[in-house]
Design goal:
heterodimer; A: 364 residues; mainly alpha; Amino acid/polyamine transporter I; 75% helix; 0% strand; globular; B: 359 residues; alpha/beta; GMP Synthetase, Chain A, domain 3; 2 domains; nine-stranded mixed β-sheet; four-stranded mixed β-sheet; 12 helices; 13 strands; 37% helix
């Protein structure tokens, strides 16, 4: 795929693209998910997961850096041959769509439960999907610029999270390490499953300006930011709720904010949710974009717009006809495992293939 | 053309979504306070203070019965033209009898489960029936029923009652290492009064403290609020009132083998705000005052600690300290059985640093 100069994005834009792809649907329930495994050591588990995520990111970077002007769908054929590469491409496209679909499902569920109980969930889906299609139809630079602009909301989220600190009990985290290594690792595993989004790097890498080391620096920065961001959220919840209480609250951040009110804004949780919707939107857009780029290249087309429209509505349809929340839970669990394959497994395998090919070449 | 078409569709959607979930203030009657009583046959009586939005009148009090609080609220709806809305609820009052049954979280579930309910509403235990309490208030001064929570909020600031709300009591109840204390209110003849603190063991009301004792308990628990006054005997027939300016608490916990030694060291700086016969210019006199005050507060503290232990109410959070710093000891014992038996000593000192504008 030719990379035109106009489509290039700066490294700052890459940084915020990664942040906005990763931060999204998961932040509301992550403290609950990790806590159910690692209890009061949940924050340690998140820190550990941060290391795993950084390693994964580095694998993705290393793989992409071998192909400075080609993205995942371009370089797969050179590594895997004609037919296998098609299969893997389709796999990635389905994976991107599945993540978008899950984001949509969870988004509808949370909005229904917290804000709009009487609104048909289809209307909620439609609002997200239609706005997302509108944005994902555009070029990468438009999307990343949007990611940069809406990132001014991230500090607001952090500031809102400072509100409960005054009524928190720091003693809840003691004794540190009481749950044991096994529980902490389990929590870290859960966390690294739910913090995904940086694998989109494989699709956009050739569009980033700058050399490999400069890009690596940006990626490392973003992983550090993400780790600290998530650790802060989880830590905040652990010191606010007592153990048994946190196990009963699937969206602890909202619940925590709900118990505070300012003079002007009574429901801080709704303020948080409004900002959170934007971060969910960017996640959804980025995945939709990646999927439609994949489809475009799979069929050797020049324009991804129609595919964006189709992919968006496919997600909408699937979400509408998904059954009860237990099924959603199963899908979510399955996708968490599948994500491991696409985020770390396949990239690592491809990297090995590159090294093997190089060895053979040197051998000759 | 095509673009404007899409934009038009999108705009229509935005107009539509509000309809399903809009709640107009004119179509609801806001619940400002709720009192819950237990009735025989596993029923609850819910007395709700609801606004009258059409007439410009003070809120009215309506009592309904139901098998659960939610059921009672649905029954309330049958009595009203508009939908009752709990999103602006300011206070929940539970009757003493209900709290003694030992399952207040079940009763309060409706307030926790509903995404729109106000988690920062105040909560209080009422001596006698919550219904009678609210009825008296409503008859005497119906305007005031809209501000029932204010009485608690001002008492919180004066360290007369603990600073708790619906959310924070749930955290405390569900934590194995601490217990909670709630404001205790009641009728004195026909006056609505703060009666002190209601002591809980888990979800069960197990005892009460007088206002003075509650203040001491809060000081021991390191929960001094903006203002804290204590009136203590200083000589025979003479009382001195002091305002605590600063308080420093140190909780030392030493598990030695099977027994546990807990000592509370409380050091306070105070200002004399009433002492008709005092002479604060003399250093010796002030030292004597300090000594007597410290002695008196120590007696009071011992009494309060005994009461807390009798009620099995670990409001000081000793169990939490054990979990955090002595977890091996914590794992061996059953705190519910151990707490009333442990040895808690306190040493409290008051140091007068100010005496107003008189010597």
């Amino acid at each position: 795929m030719g990379t035109r100069q106009a489509d290039k994005i700066s490294r700052l834009e890459l940084f915020f693209f990664i942040l906005q792809s990763v931060i999204g649907i998961g932040i509301l329930s992550l403290p609950y998910t990790v806590f159910s495994e690692s209890k009061t050591d949940a924050w340690i588990a998140v820190l550990l997961a941060g290391i795993a995520i950084t390693i994964n990111m580095m694998i993705n970077w290393k793989l992409s850096s071998h192909f400075p002007s080609a993205n995942l769908f371009d370089f797969l054929p050179t590594l895997l041959g004609k037919y296998l590469s098609k299969a893997v491409s389709v796999g990635y496209i389905v994976y991107f769509l599945a993540v978008a679909y899950l984001v949509l499902l969870l988004f509808g569920d949370i909005i229904t439960r917290w804000v709009l109980p009487r609104t048909p969930v289809l209307a909620i889906y439609f609002l997200l999907v239609s706005t997302s299609i509108y944005l994902a139809r555009e070029s990468l630079s438009v999307i990343t610029r949007f990611c940069v602009i809406v990132s001014i909301f991230l500090p607001v989220l952090l500031i809102l999270m400072l509100v409960p600190l005054n009524s928190s009990h720091f003693i809840y985290i003691f004794p540190i390490g009481q749950t044991g290594l096994e529980a902490i690792f389990k929590g870290a595993k859960e966390t690294s499953f739910s913090i995904i989004g940086y694998e989109l790097l494989l699709v956009i890498y050739p569009f980033v300006k700058g050399n490999h080391t400069q890009i690596r620096k940006v990626i490392l920065l973003s992983s550090a930011f993400l780790t600290l961001f998530y650790t802060f959220l989880v830590f905040n919840c652990v010191i606010f709720f007592s153990s048994e209480e946190l196990e009963q609250i699937p969206e602890p951040i909202l619940y925590m904010l709900k118990s505070f009110s300012f003079r002007v804004i009574e429901r801080i949780d709704l303020l948080f949710l409004s900002i959170w919707i934007v971060t969910v939107l960017t996640t959804f857009v980025n995945y939709l974009f990646a999927a439609s780029i994949g489809i475009k290249q799979l069929f050797h087309q020049n324009d991804h717009r129609h595919f964006t429209l189709a992919a968006g509505f496919l997600c909408l349809l699937c979400a509408e006809f998904t059954g009860d929340r237990f099924l959603v839970q199963k899908i979510s669990d399955f996708l968490a495992k599948a994500s491991f394959l696409f985020v770390a497994g396949i990239p690592l395998l491809l990297l090995l293939i590159i090294y093997m090919k190089k060895l053979r070449w040197h051998g000759r | 053309m095509k673009k404007s078409y899409i934009t038009a569709i999108l705009l229509v959607v935005f107009l539509l979504t509000g309809c399903w979930d809009q709640r107009l203030l004119k179509d609801v009657r806001l619940l400002l306070g709720v009192g819950i009583d237990y009735q025989k046959g596993n029923k609850v009586i819910m007395s709700s203070v609801v606004t009258r939005n059409l007439e410009k009148k003070p809120p009215e009090l309506i009592s309904t019965t139901g098998s659960t609080p939610r059921d009672a609220r649905i029954n309330l709806q049958r009595k009203l033209i508009y939908v009752p809305d709990a999103s602006k609820n300011r206070i929940v009052m539970l009757s003493e009898a209900l709290a003694r049954k030992g399952s207040i979280l079940e009763v309060l579930d409706v307030f926790y489960r509903d995404p729109r309910s106000a988690l920062n509403a105040k909560i209080a235990i009422v001596k006698g029936k919550a219904k009678d309490f609210l009825e008296t208030q409503s008859k005497d001064n119906p305007d005031l029923t809209a501000f029932l929570d204010r009485q608690i909020v001002t008492s919180e600031a004066a360290t007369i009652v603990p600073d708790v709300d619906l959310q924070s009591i749930r955290t405390g109840i569900l934590d194995p290492g601490e217990d909670i204390m709630m404001p205790y209110m009641g009728l004195n003849k026909s006056n609505v009064e703060i009666l002190g603190g209601a002591l809980f063991h888990g979800q069960k009301l197990t005892g009460t403290l007088t206002p003075g004792e509650t203040t001491v308990a809060l000081l021991l628990a390191n929960q001094k609020n903006k203002q804290t006054t204590l009136t203590l005997p200083i000589e025979k027939g003479v009382q001195m009132t002091v305002n605590i300016l600063q308080s420093k608490r140190k909780l030392t916990i030493q598990p030695t083998g099977q027994s546990l030694k807990v000592s509370i060291d409380l050091q306070m700086n105070a200002e004399a705000i009433e002492m008709p016969f005092g002479d604060f210019s003399d250093q010796k006199t002030v030292a004597k005052f300090n000594h007597t005050l410290s002695e008196e507060i120590n007696k009071e503290a011992d009494k309060v600690i005994k009461k807390l232990q009798a009620a099995n109410c670990d409001v000081l959070g000793i169990g939490r300290q054990l979990i955090a710093h002595h977890s091996s000891y914590w794992n061996q014992i059953d705190w519910n059985k151990e707490y009333p038996k442990i040895n808690i000593t306190s040493s409290t000192t008051i140091n007068l640093t100010r005496n107003g504008i008189l010597e």
